[in-house]
Amino acid sequence: MAAATTNRAYLGISGSSRLRARSYKFASSSSSISTKTTSRRRKSSSSSSSRRSTTVVVSSSTSTSSAEREGDETERRPILVVSDLDGTMVGDDQSTSAFRTFWEGEIRDGRSKLVYSTGRSLESFRVLLSEKREVMVEPEMLICAVGTKVYSKTEEEKWVEDEEWTRTLDVGWDESIVRAGCAKAIELCGEESAHFRPEEEQNAHKITCGLKDEKLGDFVETLEKYLKEKNVTAKIISSGTGGWKYVDCVSNQAGKLESLEFVRKKLGFEVERTVACGDSGNDELMLSGKNLAIVVGNAQEDLVRWAEKALLEGEEVEKGGKGSSKKRVVVTKAFEARGIIEGIRTHFFLD
Q1: What is the spatial distance between Cα 214 and Cα 12, in angstroms, rounded to a whole number?
Q2: What average pLDDT does range 84-88 have in this prediction?
């Protein structure tokens, strides 16, 4: 099964002003940005053009050598790591394996927790875990389908959907109306330019469509207008490069940040001990919360623009009990899972 949608941009909530893409100039004496193009893993079923993304490396003067770490690692307070999968935790097996060694050797103490937040379905995640079991860490909890599904693991090692979370998604949501709105927008764009994605990518709180780049504006405008008329609210999230876009219409209560907050509270972690990790616009919302954030070195162009803005604005959080502050967002030099390692060390080991 294809990996779930990546390289997404949050377009907004129907019935309100959309968050429009903006460009920011980025200047820093301690950081430099270089870009390169890498192949995307997912392709639209109606186009042979491959998805591509812009990879970014942000260099900084921060060292991650063990000599700079403070205190005995066994005395550190536990942390909650919520990480995207494709392009962040997985992609390069050596990098994923390095994270597992790091997690099991330096972090895991029975108190720190790892959660994956992915666009994949549960079945797609199971396939991935089966393929990568030798290098991947199995998580404590799982967030799937762009924050519309939350799963916990039972003592029998089975994944069970969190019914409390699922119930919250019904507020203001009507699947049939959202689907009808998408159908109307597809008709306007033309079936050669827009379509519903396969049923395995849909669920009761997420409708996903594929459309050509040039039709995105018309599609979103038509859908938002229809939902406003029907008094239904939804988050509309766009993703993709290479000539085609994916549009996810999800419950207004859903999303990667909302599901992160639900899981954080359920596991009992303070916000300053919680860090989200991502590589694409799909991860922007969970990186935009009060929690700490790690943007890995291979981040895609839309997320890079967001990170540039966050760095320019100097977003900071207080250091626990020290009366000082530190940057909330870290952009790493290392790619994928090695970038997560670098970010964790920067946030928690180098205080």
Answers
A1: 18
A2: 96
